[in-house]
Amino acid sequence: MAEAENTPTVVVDGVHITYTVHGGRSGGRGAATAALSRMLRRGGAATPAARRVHAVKGVSLVARRGEAIGLIGSNGSGKSTLLKAIAGLQPVERGQVYTHGQPSLLGVNAALMNDLTGERNVVLGGLAMGMSRAEVRERYAGIVDFSGVNEKDDAISRPMRTYSSGMGARLRFSIAAAKSHDVLLIDEALSTGDARFRRRSQRRIDELRAEAGTVFLVSHSNSTITETCERALWLEAGTLRMDGPAKEVVAAYEEFTATGTGTEPGKPGK
């Protein structure tokens, strides 16, 4: 059993990720004036500038079966981009990503059909994750109950576009958590629910880990990371600054955000 728990499920080896942003940098009034001048000279619309963003810079890590790993860091530090690369949704420029099984990415903006009812989205989401129709029918009531979207009214029968962001996030998590995953990637989905839903979610994550899965969790709530994960990765400006016990990594990150110290990237702990 110990050998099975030590089995690597994700290996990220020296990964660099870049992408192109169209429209240029936000340069304030001076940039706007320059753009207007270009438009007037050309007699038409200005061609948006394009720039390359180096979002992830040489990140390496190994995740093992049964781990829950939190990702923390400032906005734009590369957390979500790294999750997309692990899920196979974001190409890497250099380096390699190896995964055992099919990773499943769950995010607040995960694609569900806003014009369809919550009920239809439960069915479509379950099928998209590889469930059979019989499995979706069997788990349907549990998914809806877990999400809590039907507690006040018959919201599950209404279009998703009528849901609050919290309701939508809870339903997305509930669909994804209805089956076991080799690797489950959660991007901010637990930050929008109430305390009761977060407790239910954390228990479900523990169950998924016990079922020999690996969970990655991105959150801006440091307490959620320390309560849910035993290990954390701190990404800052695309580099991996620290990899180690969640409480130690969160403490170092909180000191960094409070004082602005810690400019040198740390060595990974695992």
Automatic annotation (TrEMBL):
One of its GO terms (molecular function) is ATP binding. Residues 40-262 form the ABC transporter domain. It comes from the Bacteria. Keywords: ATP-binding, Nucleotide-binding, Transport. The keyword ATP-binding applies. Pfam families: ABC_tran. Belongs to the ABC transporter superfamily. PANTHER family: TEICHOIC ACIDS EXPORT ATP-BINDING PROTEIN TAGH. This is ABC transporter ATP-binding protein. It comes from Streptomyces zaomyceticus.
